[in-house]
Every structure is written in C-alpha cells, then in structure tokens.
Amino acid sequence: LAKTTQPISMDSYEGQEVNITCSHNNIATNDYITWYQQFPSQGPRFIIQGYKTKVTNEVASLFIPADRKSSTLSLPRVSLSDTAVYYCLVGDGGYSTLTFGKGTMLLVSP
Amino acid sequence: EAQVTQNPRYLITVTGKKLTVTCSQNMNHEYMSWYRQDPGLGLRQIYYSMNVEVTDKGDVPEGYKVSRKEKRNFPLILESPSPNQTSLYFCASSKNDGPKNIQYFGAGTRLSVL
C-alpha cells in the first residue's frame, strides 16, 4: 500500500477555493486514489476517487498529474460546513490493511 | 436505506469485563473492517474481513477479536478490556470492487474503559 503524505492542517475563508495536495511517490500501477471527509465524532465519508487526469463530481474535483505521484483535492467555494479532516488513500482496493493516516484538518472561517 | 449500523453508540465499562460491539451492514458487502481513532493518531485498522469466515489482522489487533459468521455482521470483541482501549471505534464495509474499493462507515462507538 502506497504511503501518503498530506499537510497536517490548512486554513481558509468562506467562499475561497481550497486545494489539498497528497504525495504518494510509490503509487503502483493498479492503485486508485480515494479521498474521504470526516466530521468530528462521525465516520469518514467518501468524497471522490480517481486514477488519472481529472475527476469532478458535485462536491469536489481531483487532479492527478501524469506521473501520478501526487494528487490534489479541490473544494470550490468552501463554506463553514466544509470544516473537517480530509484523508487521502492510495491502494489497489481492499486486499490488505487500509491506512488512513492523520489526514488534513481544514478549518474554514467566516 | 443503505447503512452500516454499530451498537452501542456509547459504552462505559470497567477493566476486564468482556464486551462486544456489534456491526451490521445491509449492502451485501463482502469486505468489513474495524478501526479505532485516537487523538493525534488518526484512524488505525484493527481487523478486517474479506468475506465470511475470512478475517485478518490490521495494524493494531492486540486485545481484540472478531468473527465473521454471516456476511452482514462483523462484531468486535474485547475479551478483557483495558483503559488503553478507550477510544472511538468505527466499523466499515465495502464491495470487493477491486481497485475502486469505497468504504462506508458506521456512526461510531465511543468506548470508555475505567
């Protein structure tokens, strides 16, 4: 399972775009990149998943460069309710332990 | 509604008193897993199961047991709880969907061992 590195914390203001980058230098060919969001005292929730280039859904966008050694979660126009911990996971899906790491604590202020 | 249900949500117990935290999913998922979350340590996997009667250790299995006799249920057993097992526990499930494995989490069980 590829090890990931994310910033411990980030600060932003309402209405701004937030980009959280995750490094995964030893990503394998079969690995997908998955991001989860966790609010305090709640279970993590799936946000977005991708393999290469760009993926967009109603919540976020995920940018993956050609070498796939990093990925960037982009949250457009954040609101106070986006304050949460964001986890980046890289793996080939379920056939081994899944390590969430410590994630990135995003604090959105008014 | 598709969901992962954990019970109880809150539990206070004493050292050495055996307890079980139940986890049930209604999505017919093959894969289930238990995590614990502690301040500053993130989410750490305790045990996981790829299917019925198949379980394996995660990163922090010491002091825990699991069983997977039915597809929908994956109970976490603490035979002799100790204060260092005070934590927030999450159960999760997913399809064995190859690389696109997406996990669905329960609401959590907050355990205090006195």
Commentary on this structure:
The complex is a heterodimer of chains A (110) and B (114). By secondary structure, chain A is mainly beta. Chain A has no helices and nine strands. In chain A, the strands form two sheets. In chain A, strands 1-9-8-3-4 form a five-stranded mixed β-sheet, with no helix packed on it. In chain A, strand 5 (53-56) and strand 6 form a beta hairpin. Chain A is globular, with a radius of gyration of 13 Å. The model of chain A has no long low-confidence stretch (mean pLDDT 90). With 114 residues, chain B is an all-beta fold. Chain B has strands spanning 4-7, 10-13, 19-25, 31-38, 42-51, 54-57, 65-66, 76-78, 87-94, 104-105, 109-113. In chain B, strands 2, 4, 5, 6, 9, 10 and 11 form a seven-stranded mixed β-sheet that branches. In chain B, a hairpin with a 2-residue loop joins strand 5 and strand 6. Chain B is globular, with a radius of gyration of 13 Å. At the A-B interface, strand 3 and strand 4 of A face strand 4, strand 5, strand 9 and strand 10 of B.
Set out the fold topology.
The complex is a heterodimer of chains A (110) and B (114).
Chain A: E1 9-13, E2 18-23, E3 32-38, E4 45-50, E5 53-56, E6 61-64, E7 70-75, E8 84-91, E9 104-109
Parallel strand pairs in A: 1-9
Antiparallel strand pairs in A: 2-7, 3-4, 3-8, 5-6, 6-7, 8-9
Chain B: E1 4-7, E2 10-13, E3 19-25, E4 31-38, E5 42-51, E6 54-57, E7 65-66, E8 76-78, E9 87-94, E10 104-105, E11 109-113
Parallel strand pairs in B: 2-11
Antiparallel strand pairs in B: 1-3, 3-8, 4-5, 4-9, 5-6, 7-8, 9-10, 9-11
